[in-house]
Design a protein that fits this description.
The structure holds 5 protein chains of 5 kinds. Chain A is mainly α. Chain A has helices at 5-22, 28-49, 85-104, 112-131, 135-144, 146-156, 161-188, 198-206, 221-236, 245-252, 255-280, 282-309, 313-334, 337-368, 384-398, 404-419, 421-446, 462-480, 483-500, and strands spanning 64-72, 77-83. Chain A has a two-stranded antiparallel ribbon. The mean pLDDT of chain A is 89. By secondary structure, chain C is mainly α. In chain C, a hairpin with a 4-residue loop joins strand 1 (60-62) and strand 2. Chain C is globular and about 65 Å long. Chain E is mainly alpha-helical. Mean pLDDT of chain E is 80; it is low at 624-660. Classes of the chains: A mainly alpha, B mainly alpha, C mainly alpha, D mainly alpha, E mainly alpha. Chains in contact: A-C, A-E, B-C, B-D, B-E, C-D, C-E, D-E. Chains B and D meet through helix 1, helix 2, helix 3, helix 4 and helix 5 of B and helix 1, helix 2 and helix 3 of D.
Chain lengths: 502, 166, 477, 103, 692
């Protein structure tokens, strides 16, 4: 089993689907929970056996747990999975969020089997994205996420769910089509023999190969491909001005899906930057870098400012996600070792922190049936545990030292400061604004005189505690010992940094 | 000016005038009957172009068959008792100009084109040669078009005879 | 005089179908034969023709430069035969056509089939015209055979008028081609057009463009697509399924064969022309589809846009593009037949309005799932085969550097999402109401639906079999 | 008279046919337009057959013209059949009123 | 050594443990075991920590002065490539002093709080928070590197936020907490940027990047050679860190949060906003004196800010009516003194003032708190008076501390403040000295004003309150008294040379915090005997001047508030004094200024951006659709009847583009053919034009 462990990990959730349809529908959530937990358990050997000292990335023989079979020989498409430092933490995050999101779905009471089968499909696709090393395989996993996500938002979402779902679908598909076209063009103009093997491509690029193609509509080939790819991934991240789907999707999606959306899906964009977009075109990256940093700063400040103005708690968190994802972009854009490692750490941390935030919003929404920030007040005295947990998450979101968000933001800013001082300081303003919107909304919800409507609100229940506690532990633990995670990817990301900054 | 040219002039005027009547008459039956003259004029052109057999086919099949069919069709799909069946046009001016402009495009294009021409066209009986061609080089289309006509015939009968909705 | 009979032995399937036409048209008149069940006979004929095509080998030009039979034409004919068989199957389950006239209907269908089979192997303009007419006339008639939809005759009438219009333009264009080159055979035409001053001159473009009209009409490409939504909407559903696939396949086969013999100096102009047609087709088809509320009509528009996509493969004018088209054809057939089978399954009494499908998934989860697979495949998202089909088309276009076309196609595949997913939204997300159709379950049709949709998933994940199949088609050799 | 004179006549007929096609309200009228178009095509073939050299047989154009006439006949049969069927259904064949299918 | 290592490892985690226990189980403990037990748990940790801190101090004293430093490295915190930061503590003379202040004053205040917070339902929560605060503060001072210092720095900020908003059901209190946190964040940005600058230049010039103080000290000279943005690197770094200090230690222009922070319970004000947290900035500069020593211009800047803050806060303090506000502005003002001291290079004097200020200001706050509780949470001095009769211990403690803060000879404030002023003058900053000098008098004035308004005269509140007013229980009073004694006596630790002292405190710090004029590269002016003598005279002169000025203002306060209130009223009746008073009472309208200059525009900006995002960005991406609609309307093709499309409300943009085509789809065959014909001829014409 160890030899095919990645396949098992990726496809195990799918095995849950037939089981789920075979059993009565009130058992569906248990099946899903079992599947996600089992997935987590069988993935443990990956984290234990992972060799942290080899970078992978552009070295085909350094990928780990590799599974490589010819899939479509005529096209050179392979079933090629493998991991390196870049993917291993993302797999961990996905598995973790999967379990927690299942718990967060406990209250789903409409078409359970449909919901959980879509959920499992989504989980498999997300895992697939992080292990696929063949462009086509990657793309298939990437796009497979779309339709479960569409239904999960569209069927089980809020009042404007249809709008949000189609908007999500449209935006992402738009980016996806561009990506596909770029992949094909990259394949066609691969330096050397044509291949869809992204590691092989990277190896050639790092050995001096260049994607050389004809001008596209009058613009240089590599730049166009780069930008199109960038847009494809940027929509997922999301980066200004492609971000408008995110608040809508978050607001309308059910809690668990918001958690997955913020926790894992957004990371795919940045993962794509790191794995494909930037290292494949180092020269274009150098050309694009200033613009990238500008975008990152816009994302940070703009997202934070928009978050300040929001009245809906989920929307506020959605915009805060935009702001936080800007940090990741900043780190990647700076591409220094600290910056890029910090970005990766932030990917993990943002995954846990925002997941927790959305879970918390879900808790309050389940009870109060609305999310208007101004509609609460003084809840701290009624639901103290909930308030405390929320304060932890908010503080982590603000980047309080001792909690995980701080370390990653610190690394990112320290890294980007090496290359872009002014941008870093502007991004630092984002942190201040971050404290502003977080505390302000926290205050409006929990402080002040108690809103009489909610004086009988019940505090978090056991299931919710189970879904929140692991995140809390991770947030605190990684605030103190971030290297527990950093050690997994440091070597790989330092390698990417060298590729990007020759 | 040669005699064929005179004939050409005559047929040209004849065909275009009758065709215009077909096109712009507001009485369906007038159009239908005038179409006969157009087809006749066309046969004249064919004769001028050395196609004696084709001209005959034109007269027999087209003028004799298709046109009669059209007249029947006109009557069957209108009120037979009424002598006048409307054949009005609409969007007249716009249509006219778009048709004319299309013709202008065609003519400009033709004008610009240098056609490869024969020294001189031949006018001699073609029936025998055409017969040979039809049974040798064009045997397959000749056979296949029979299926076409068969299907057209059966199909038309079928669709007209189809049961009323139940 | 040369004996032409041996040539017939090279087109045995055509002959068999021709005999079938005679049989179906005449048999009713013979008392004894009348009692024979018609459908099995037709199935047998189709099977026979399929096998006969399979047994042939080699590449021949026959009937004095009229036809060229080769592995390409034979494979395409086999595809057409399969489509016809599938249509025949659907006809059993449709209440829209009068079963009383099955003999004649089958006769018309056979005629259509024969025409298409000639389209795939014609290399002579006259043969092309006749083959196209042979397809068109029965199509006009079949569209008018829908008892359930009073608009059927109207559609048929529009179809025939529009068809004649397209034929007229095509004939006029062919006459110009003939005038320019003095020839009616494809290869000679291209040779005749090889004069430098002629290439890309107005007359050249005009003649070619007008000559393509007939083909464009058959594959419903812009600007000859207007008949398509009307005809598809009002035709009996199996006929719609048939018309949305078979004539497109035949038309594309013909188009590719026609273009095959062009010379490289002619390529750029042609490429541009076809790329423009392709872009217009997919864009207009998609945009018009956005506001449709009749499901059949919507799929008609979507099939227009798919024609645009298919033309993308033609526009590259090379082996890669053709391979992509071959690749797309079986997938397209599966998707379309899947969707139409589901419609036949669901709809009785012509209730194709989208509001009739609200919340369908509550009562028919399996059915809607299969339907959704077909729809997602039509959208072209992985892991469904439609994606792979588009993937190959994009690949071909990118390899040729047709960037604008690629971009337009990319944008279109996103726009297409809106209406396709709109269907699914109605079926899956909306709540059912009194309008929602009540469906009687039918295991056989469900099986047919599964046969269409399960391979879509399978090929979406493992499409090597289709690749092997496309490679087996040695084009024009 | 040369080739271009014939081409002009055929272009004129073609345009008239088109005008009829676009503007006639009665379906049969539209069909007549089609006949004009077909005739113009046939005339072209005849003219080219007469004036320009042909690769195959010089009479190829004439053969084509014959086939056009036959096709026109077949098409007319079908079109009229359908027109009559439509007349049975709607009691008229006015193209501008047959607009139940749209959108 | 070992003892110190163990104890400094334990010290910060003790209160953390307390915080955890109380935070997680406090509610149950309070319910089951009662308030006392909760309080004891809460107090035990700082007391034990204090015991450890003092014993460590004595162990340290037993070591050679040069070796009085102990480091403990526990684990790696962050390590990425060349950037590596450890979990490490550092214990040296400076730390030991801070530890004692924090744990000592902290313990006293904890005990005091048991009385102060009596019968508060969130008693346990208070102790959890304040324990957490202690822990963070201890981290701050113990940290061996900037990052751990920053951890503590932010940690105390958080606790400050939590404690200011402790009574969160009052919305304004919560707002004050938020304000404190955000203003601090602005300062933190400076801190972080300073760190980044060090990281940047370390990584450029050294193999590993370190933020550890010891190594930074070694590298300081190397780093001083660089410039950034055309400025010497260390100047910029110093300014950046000082911005951090401005936030934390409430200096102009970031002081605005501190007066508002008085919303918190009074022990919090005493501990956090007087004795410990707000002095973190001073501590930080002392800790990094080696960098500041190399940044003369930054030092000037610090001194200037310090003096200005000192002066302006003192003036505002004159006009406050709320007793806690008076003390708050006094704190700001005293912090200004400290920075003035740091800025002129008298690091040890600044730090000494930190120490003495911790004692007397904590005492003042606690006494004030005690009175406030006794008067039923009345803070307005206008409604007090004559309290001394009812609460003698508290009252005399308050007065003792007032003597200390005014700098009455022999009290702690006398020595510390005097040395700062002297340092300012002698280092060649007469104007700064003058500001500090004036402020010293004002300080004396407003403090005595507070004393007279509160403790003397007639009671001005309502009867019932007066009847219930009585001395607080022992646990409240004893800590106040202890601190009062400390406030009087602590000064003798650092008696200056000219008064015959030996500057014990400065010498104790010397190995790790060296005053500018004692540094190796300081070129001391060679003084002749006469000059030396004159110098001493000058010192005496300055001292006497300050003391007499303070005494004068104290007298003035007595005169205006006790002897002759009529005179005061007469003066106040004049328009210009009234205007001045209003100006001061409203704190120079700085809050309003910030509101109009920063807060409101920001609010406008984000509301605008939110709209912008919704309408423009979202719209621009869907821009094709907008255009489509406009064109559609222009062409009259827009058909409002077909709104109920299949995909209505979804992707209306593309739909409208589709609707534009509806003319083609009218169902009339001619329209279809006509348009296809037009299309053909259009395309043909275009092609021809293009290809010709």
């Amino acid at each position: 089993m160890l030899s095919h462990i990645l396949t098992w990990v990726v496809f195990l959730p799918l095995l849950g689907i037939p089981v789920l349809f075979a059993l009565p529908k009130d058992k569906a959530k248990w099946v899903t929970l079992a599947a996600t937990i089992a997935d987590f358990i069988i993935a443990i050997p990956i984290f234990i056996g992972f060799n942290k000292s080899i970078p992978g990335v552009s070295n085909p023989n350094q990928m780990q747990f590799v599974e490589k079979f010819d899939w479509i020989p005529s096209l050179g498409v392979q079933y090629y999975m493998g991991i390196d430092g870049l993917s291993v933490t993302m797999i961990l995050l996905t598995l973790l969020i999967g379990v927690l999101a299942t718990l967060a779905s406990w209250n789903i009471n409409k078409f359970e089997r449909g919901y959980f089968s879509m959920f499992l499909l989504l989980q498999a696709a997300m895992l697939g994205v992080f292990v696929a090393l063949d462009l086509i395989l990657f793309f298939i996993f990437w796009e497979v996420m779309l339709f479960p996500m569409y239904f999960l938002i569209g069927v089980w979402g809020g009042p404007r769910r249809v709008y949000a779902a189609i908007k999500f679908f449209l935006y992402t598909l738009f980016g996806g089509v561009g990506m596909l076209l770029s992949f094909i063009a990259m394949w066609y103009f691969t330096p050397g023999e044509r291949t869809f093997d992204m590691i092989e491509m990277l190896a050639r690029v790092s050995a001096g190969g260049v994607f050389e193609g004809p001008d596209i509509l009058g613009m240089p080939f590599a730049k166009v491909i780069f930008v199109v790819l960038f847009v494809g991934f940027a929509i997922k991240v999301p980066i200004f001005p492609f971000h408008t789907w995110l608040p809508d999707a978050h607001v309308e999606a059910p809690t668990a899906i918001s958690v997955i959306l913020a926790g894992v899906l957004l990371k795919m964009g940045t993962y794509g930057f790191l794995r494909i977009n930037f290292p494949m075109f180092p020269e274009v990256f150098a050309w694009f870098r200033d613009f990238l940093i500008a975008l990152a700063v816009i994302n940070i400040v703009y997202g934070a400012l928009c978050a300040l103005a929001q009245k809906d708690l989920k929307k506020m968190i959605a915009y805060s996600s935009i702001s936080h994802m800007g940090f990741i972009l900043l780190g990647i854009g700076a591409a220094t070792t600290q910056g890029i490692n910090g970005a990766m750490l932030q990917m993990f941390n943002h995954g846990t922190i925002t997941a927790m935030l959305f879970l918390l919003v879900g808790v309050i929404y389940d009870r109060a049936h609305h999310r208007e920030i101004n509609g609460f007040g003084g809840l701290a005295s009624v639901v103290p545990i909930f308030a405390t947990l929320t304060s932890f998450a908010f503080m982590a979101g603000i980047g309080l030292p001792g909690l995980s968000g701080f370390v990653s933001e610190l690394l990112i800013l320290a890294g980007s400061f090496k290359e872009y001082q002014v941008a870093t300081i502007l991004a630092g303003l984002g942190i201040i604004l971050g404290a502003g919107y977080m505390l302000w909304s926290y205050q409006r919800v929990f402080f002040g005189p108690l809103n009489e409507k909610y004086k009988d609100l019940s505090d978090v229940n056991i299931i919710e505690v189970f879904s929140l506690a692991p995140l809390l532990v991770i947030i605190v633990y990684l605030g103190i010992f971030p290297n527990a995670v950093i050690q997994y990817f440091e070597v790989s990301l330092n390698h990417i940094s060298r590729l990007l900054l020759p | 000016m040669h005699v064929p040219d005179l004939f050409f002039m005559f047929f040209t005027i004849f065909v275009l005038v009758t065709a215009s009547i077909v096109a712009f008459s507001s009485n369906m039956l007038h159009s239908a009957f005038t179409l006969f003259f157009v087809l006749f004029g066309m046969a004249g052109f064919y004769v001028l172009l050395g196609g004696d057999f084709v001209a005959m086919v034109q007269l027999m099949v087209y003028a004799g068959g298709v046109n009669v069919l059209l007249i029947f069709g006109t009557m069957l799909t209108g009120d037979i008792a009424k002598p006048e069946i409307s054949n009005l046009s609409f969007q007249g001016i716009l249509t006219f100009f778009s048709g004319v402009s299309f013709m202008a495009v065609l003519l400009t294009v033709f004008e610009k084109t240098e056609w490869t021409l024969l020294e001189k066209g031949v006018r001699e009986p073609t029936t025998a040669e055409l017969g040979k061609l039809l049974l040798k080089d064009y045997i397959l289309p000749f056979e296949v078009i029979s299926f076409l006509l068969l299907a057209a015939m059966v199909g038309s009968v079928l669709i007209v005879l189809q049961r009323e909705k139940d | 005089m040369i004996n032409t009979l041996p040539y017939l032995s090279l087109i045995p399937a055509h002959v068999l179908i021709a005999l079938a036409i005679l049989f179906f048209f005449v048999a009713k008149a013979i008392p004894g034969i009348k009692k024979i069940p018609q459908a099995p006979v037709f199935y047998l004929v189709l099977l026979g023709a399929f096998l006969l095509e399979g047994m042939q080998d080699g590449s021949e030009v026959i009937f004095f430069d009229m036809l060229r039979v080769d592995s390409f034409s034979r494979t395409m004919n086999q595809v057409l035969l399969v489509i016809t068989a599938a249509t025949l199957f659907l006809l059993h389950y449709s209440d829209e056509m009068d079963k009383e006239y099955n003999w004649e209907n089958y006769g018309l269908l056979s005629t259509l089939l024969l025409g298409m089979m000639f389209m795939t192997c014609s290399i002579h303009l006259l043969m092309v015209v006749i083959a196209i007419e042979l397809v068109s006339l029965p199509s006009y008639l079949l569209v008018g055979m829908n008892r359930k939809d009073p608009a059927s005759k109207e559609a048929s009438l529009k179809y025939v008028l529009f068809g004649s219009f397209a034929t007229g333009i095509m004939l006029y264009g062919m006459s110009l081609l003939f005038g320019l080159t003095g020839s009616l055979v494809f290869s000679d035409i291209w040779k005749g057009l090889l004069k430098v001053e002629l290439i890309n001159s107005p007359i050249y473009i005009l003649a070619l463009f007008m000559s393509f009209a007939g083909i464009a009409f058959k594959i419903a490409a812009v600007p000859f697509h207007f008949w398509c939504p009307d005809a598809y909407q009002a035709a009996p559903t199996p006929v719609t399924a048939f018309l949305s696939t078979a004539p497109k396949v035949a038309g594309l086969a013909l188009f590719m064969r026609l273009l095959d013999e062009h010379f490289s100096i002619q390529a750029s102009g042609l490429m541009e022309m076809i790329a423009i047609i392709s872009m217009l087709t997919m864009t207009l088809g998609n945009l018009a589809a956005l506001k449709q509320t009749n499901l059949k009509r919507l799929i008609a528009y979507s099939s227009i846009s798919h024609a645009g996509f298919l033309l993308m493969g033609v526009a590259t004018l090379d082996e890669v593009g053709r391979q992509a088209v071959y690749f797309y054809i079986p997938i397209y057939i599966l998707m379309n037949f899947g969707a139409f089978t589901a419609l036949i399954y669901m709809v009785k009494d012509n209730k194709f309005d989208i509001s009739n499908f609200k919340g369908m998934i509550r009562t028919q989860p399996m059915l809607v799932t299969f339907f959704a697979i077909c729809i997602f495949s039509l959208v072209g998202v992985p892991p469904f085969a439609g994606f792979i089909g588009k993937f190959y088309l994009f690949k071909a276009a990118i390899a040729k550097g047709l960037w604008l076309l690629v971009v337009v196609a990319g944008v279109n595949s996103v726009i297409a999402l809106v209406y396709y997913v709109g269907i699914l939204k109605v079926m899956i997300i909306d709540e059912p109401d009194h309008q929602t159709l009540q469906v009687k379950s039918n295991p056989i049709l469900m099986g047919a639906l599964a046969i269409c949709s399960v391979p879509l998933v399978f090929f979406g994940l493992y499409w090597q079999p289709i690749v092997v199949w496309t490679q087996s088609i040695l084009l024009f050799r | 008279m040369g080739l271009s004179a014939y081409l002009m006549v055929s272009a004129g007929l073609f345009a008239l046919g088109m005008i009829m096609f676009i503007s006639k309200k009665n379906t049969i009228g539209i069909l007549m337009g089609v006949e004009l178009v077909l005739n113009s095509a046939a005339l072209n073939f005849m003219a080219f057959s007469y004036f320009t050299p042909s690769k195959g047989n010089q009479l190829d154009g004439q053969i084509f013209a014959i086939f056009i006439i036959l096709l026109a006949a077949a098409e007319a049969v079908v079109a009229l059949g359908i027109a009559i069927a439509a007349y049975k259904e709607y009691n008229h064949v006015q193209a501008d009123e047959l607009i139940s299918l749209k959108g | 050594m070992d003892f110190i290592q163990t104890s400094i490892t334990i010290i910060p985690f003790l209160p953390l443990l307390g915080a955890l226990v109380l935070g997680l189980f406090g509610k149950k403990i309070q319910a089951a075991l009662g308030e006392n037990m909760t309080g004891i748990i809460g107090c035990a940790t700082p007391v034990i920590a204090a015991v450890l801190a003092f014993s460590s101090f004595f162990v340290l004293l037993g070591m050679e002065p040069e070796q009085r430093i102990v480091r403990v490295t526990m684990a790696t915190w962050v390590s990425v490539a060349e950037f590596s930061v450890d979990w490490a503590f550092r214990y040296d003379t400076l730390t030991s002093m801070m530890l004692m202040i924090i744990t000592g004053v902290g313990s006293l205040i904890h005990i005091y709080s048991m009385g102060y917070m009596h019968k508060d339902e969130s008693f346990w929560r208070f102790f959890a928070y304040i324990n957490l605060f202690l822990s963070a503060m201890l981290m701050l001072v113990l940290g061996d590197n900037l990052l751990i210092m920053f951890l503590g720095w932010e940690g105390v900020g958080l606790c400050s936020y939590l404690l200011i908003g402790f009574w969160f059901s009052n919305y304004d209190f919560a707002t004050a907490g938020k304000k404190a946190f955000i203003v601090n964040r602005i300062g933190d940005l400076g801190f972080i940027v300073g760190m980044f600058l060090l990281v940047l230049y370390s990584s450029l010039n050294f193999d590993i990047v370190t933020l550890s103080f010891g190594e930074l000290e070694e590298r300081a000279l190397t780093l001083s050679q660089f410039t950034i943005w055309n400025w010497p690197l260390l100047e910029v770094v110093s300014i950046c860190f000082f911005i951090g200090a401005m936030g934390k230690s409430a200096q102009i222009p970031l002081y605005i949060w501190l007066p508002d922070a008085m919303a918190g319970p009074t022990p919090v004000s005493a501990l956090i906003h007087a004795a410990t947290m707000v002095t973190a900035g001073v501590y930080m500069i002392g800790r990094m004196f080696f960098i500041y020593s190399l940044a003369p211009e930054a030092m000037e800047f610090i001194a200037l800010i310090g003096a200005l803050t000192c002066f302006f806060a003192a003036t505002v303090g004159m006009a406050q009516m709320d007793i806690k506000k008076v003390l708050a502005y006094s704190t700001v003002s005293q912090l200004g003194y400290m920075f003035l001291g740091m800025g002129v290079g008298s690091f040890s004097y600044g730090l000494f003032h930190l120490l003495t200020h911790a004692a007397f200001k904590a005492c003042l706050f606690m006494a004030a708190g005690s009175i406030i509780v006794a008067l039923h949470h009345e803070q307005d001095m206008r409604k007090m008076g004559g309290v001394l009769k009812k609460m003698p211990i508290t009252g005399y403690s308050f007065i003792a501390a007032t003597f200390a803060i005014m700098g009455f000879p022999g009290t702690s404030g006398f020595f510390s403040k005097d040395e700062i002023l002297e340092g300012a003058f002698l280092s060649g900053h007469p104007i700064l000295w003058a500001l500090g000098f004036v402020a010293a008098g004002i300080t004396s004035f407003y403090m005595w004003r507070a004393v007279f308004m509160t403790f003397y005269g007639e009671y001005r509140g309502d009867e019932e309150t007066w009847d219930h007013c009585h001395e607080q229980p022992k646990r409240t009073v004893v800590p106040i008294a202890i601190l009062a004694i400390a406030a009087l006596l602590l000064g003798f630790l650092n008696v200056p040379d000219y008064l015959g002292g030996s500057e014990l405190f400065s010498h104790y710090l010397e190995p790790f915090v060296v005053n500018l004029n004692h540094q190796a590269n300081y070129v001391a002016p060679v003084l002749t005997e006469a000059e030396h003598h004159r110098h001493e005279m000058l010192e005496w002169g300055l001292m006497i001047g300050t003391v007499s000025w303070s005494l004068f203002t104290a007298f003035l306060a007595w005169f205006l508030y006790i002897k002759s209130p009529q005179t005061r009223e007469k003066i106040m009746a004049g328009s210009s004094p009234q205007a001045l008073f209003t100006l001061l009472a409203n704190k120079y309208y700085v809050d309003e200024l910030y509101d109009t200059v920063v807060v409101e525009p920001l609010g406008k900006l984000y509301r605008f951006l939110a709209k912008f995002d919704q309408k423009v960005v979202d719209g621009a991406v869907n821009g094709a659709g907008h255009l489509g609609r406009i064109f559609g309307q222009l062409a009259g093709l827009f058909d409002a009847k077909i709104v109920d499309g299949m995909v209505n409300e979804t992707a209306w943009f593309t739909q409208i583009a589709g609707r534009g085509m509806s003319v083609l789809q009218s169902g009339r065959i001619q329209a279809l053919v006509g348009s296809s014909l037009l299309l053909i001829s259009g395309v043909a014409t275009l092609l021809m034009l293009y290809l010709d």
